[in-house]
Specification:
By secondary structure, the protein is mainly alpha-helical. The protein contains 9 helices and no strands. α1 packs parallel to α9 and α5 (58-68) runs antiparallel to α6. It starts with a helix and ends in a 6-residue tail after the last helix. The model has no long low-confidence stretch (mean pLDDT 87).
Amino acid sequence: MWPILACSILALAIIAERIWSLQKRNVAPSTLLDQVLQHEKGQHISDDLMTLLVKSSPLGRIFAAGLRNRSHGREIMKEAIEEAGSAVVHELERNLNTLGTIAAITPLLGLLGTVIGMITVFNSITPEVMSQGIGDPTVLASGISQALITTAAGLSIGIPALMFFRYFKGKVNALTVEMEQQSLKLVEVIQGDREI
């Protein structure tokens, strides 16, 4: 039960952190593109703005990478955005592998508890005891109880962890698509291929 309890605490911490970190307003603010384009249109792109963009959000870091390379042409600008985007997506997926691992191992830990509980039950039934009956009912009940409790605990941690893992993976994918679309629009507007 101790490993299952540790997994549950870790899963709760990851879930709470990811719920906060993966909010759209924290990752890809909807007004950021318009603000950047207004600054670019007015020729107000400065190092201070770049620093502010990098600190503002993951999408801001992607925009800053593109803006730093805007004078090198469309392809270089896109490559810089893709490199920054790759790092941002990696950051958005932080701790998701751990949550997925917890979702996979907690039912197995519960199964291990079941096996240990059943071993306890069968160890209480020795040949000497069998000649007098089935053995001590309290030992049998304790072993069966341990088996059922650990199985239930493992499943009750593993199932929600798996649900949140899948939810967060979908959320990261949706945010990635949103950031790609906004970054592409930034490149096209700055390079003169499209109007705002």
